């Protein structure tokens, strides 16, 4: 059996990729994908920890996260699509109306 | 018949609601006929219900319509007794005639239907007032007629003068209402109820003289406001800015008599308070003389009638203060006939002269307006107290009663007699100036007799002004017997008994009336230069009268100006810096805080993400470090 530490390291790597992508990319769709990456990195830690500690709750929590994430994707994609239709752009730098 | 009494109020109210909702869809005269029919219907119902009183033997009853606040005796209930029946017949009878007249007078007005909405609302309110079975419902009607008066005085709100006049009427009435309300509170704390039945039966046993005097004087304040008595009469002359049918209906025949009705209705309380009686009578007599002297010098045809109304209301107060309640209500009735006629006649003249109201620019109208001239002439003789017209009988009964009571009331009798002379003079002056002599019309005026819809009400009222007094003559006191059940619990003051005394007293007032008529006729039948010289001969008195003793100026300086200064001080020294300062200060602090913090919101998702990451890293570091 592979040591849980490796899974944790992989999850940390994926999470880091997601964070960097979120902070550097401008395309809303790509940023959205980065958020999904971060979410799934967390899922991976949950499952790994659950398995290592022999606790089913880790997997249960992942199901909840998956469901919520699916719902979030629906809303988020809808927003992005309608913004794109309205502005013909998906660059978040053009969307700064809420600047104080 | 008492089952249908609610219809008396409901019919005009339904008319008002209907016209308010659908009046704009009706063609012009139709709205007026709907309103007139509603009031005439009330008259028919009231007449049918009053038949038992007229035939005699029927007792008054109270009809409960709806329990409003039964704990304090404030219900919607109708007291149907001879007094309320007579008031209802006057209000609906004269009111219906004025409604019909207004159809002609308001011809061509853009808000024709709205005018009749208000008139019907007023009729319903006034009927609520006189039919009330307790003081709470009376007060409801009392305030509603005040509102209608405000709405109708300011009906032509787009002109300069009516809105301030309407406001003045409302505010001055509020002062009176304040006294009335305090009086009601005293009554309530004494009896624990506002119901007439509960109060009047127990008044004799439970009300001390002091409390009765207090209530009587407070009610007098309210009555003086509504009925335009000294010192609260100043709103009535200004109220003439309203359309003339309004002046006839509200400010002559009905609403302004509400104060007289209030005192007559509260007779059981005044019975216990001789001091309040004397005050009421004195206020009435002084108002009668005061307003009559002002009326002498007025140039505006409606202003003469306005001061004349105040003066005649003073007679009614003299009557009810003398406890000659029947005489007071009798004069209320005859006055409603001839004063409504005078106002409608004046309206007919104003209508014919294309809104000219200055009597100096009239003259010679008798030839072109024979019906108006004749009917107004009859009303003039009636108010002057020439027998056997209506005003003679009622005015004479008042004067006789105050003479018979003696003492201080003899002084009031002399004042009343003097007022009768002045009344005859200024009314004749008006009639001669308007209808006789050379035409003094402005260029382009083409007066003409009014249409039948206006002249027929004039003729009916003219007939009533002639024969209306015959219901209560010394020989045949029909009205006295009719009203007696309503005043069972009080002692009524009567004129002296016996033919000799009657002839003497009546002779005196007839001489006064004839002297006034003759003097005015001689003075004003002459060419313009002559009567202008005659008026000039009375200077500086004449100018003082013409300016109504400068009372408006004095009130303006003594009451209005200090009030305005106090309001300005409160507004600009207290409200603006202190109250507004606190509110604006709090807002300023919040705004500065917000301005300081707003650069945080860059609007770029990336910054938010970075901050989020920094926060998460900080938390992790803190957790690791503290572990």
How do the helices and strands line up, and which of them pair or pack?
The complex is a heterodimer of chains A (about 100) and B (about 625).
Chain A: H1 4-24, H2 28-53, H3 57-87
Chain B: H1 6-22, H2 28-55, E1 61-69, E2 74-80, H3 82-105, H4 112-131, H5 135-153, H6 162-191, H7 196-206, H8 209-226, H9 235-238, H10 244-253, H11 258-265, H12 267-270, H13 274-296, H14 301-321, H15 325-352, H16 370-384, H17 390-405, H18 408-435, H19 452-467, E3 472-473, E4 476-477, H20 478-483, H21 499-524, H22 528-536, H23 541-546, H24 551-597, H25 605-626
Antiparallel strand pairs in B: 1-2, 3-4
Can you describe this structure?
- The complex is a heterodimer of chains A (100) and B (627).
- Chain A is mainly α and 100 residues long.
- Chain A has a single domain, classed as Helix Hairpins.
- Chain A has helices at residues 4-24, 28-53, 57-87.
- In chain A, helix 1 packs antiparallel against helix 2 and helix 2 (28-53) runs antiparallel to helix 3.
- The longest helix of chain A has 31 residues, at 57-87.
- The radius of gyration of chain A is 17 Å and the shape is elongated.
- The mean pLDDT of chain A is 89.
- The radius of gyration of chain B is 30 Å and the shape is globular.
- With 627 residues, chain B is mainly α.
- Chain B folds into 3 domains: 1-272, no CATH class; 337-546, no CATH class; 552-626, no CATH class.
- In chain B, strand 3 (472-473) and strand 4 (476-477) form a beta hairpin.
- Chain B has helices at residues 6-22, 28-55, 82-105, 112-131, 135-153, 162-191, 196-206, 209-226, 235-238, 244-253, 258-265, 267-270, 274-296, 301-321, 325-352, 370-384, 390-405, 408-435, 452-467, 478-483, 499-524, 528-536, 541-546, 551-597, 605-626, and strands spanning 61-69, 74-80, 472-473, 476-477.
- In chain B, the strands form 2 sheets. A two-stranded antiparallel ribbon of chain B has the order 1-2. In chain B, strands 3-4 form a two-stranded antiparallel sheet.
- Chain B has 25 helices and 4 strands.
- The longest helix of chain B is centred in the last third of the chain and has 47 residues, at 551-597.
- The A-B interface holds A 19, 22-23, 31, 92-93, 95-100 and B 597-606, 609-610, 613.
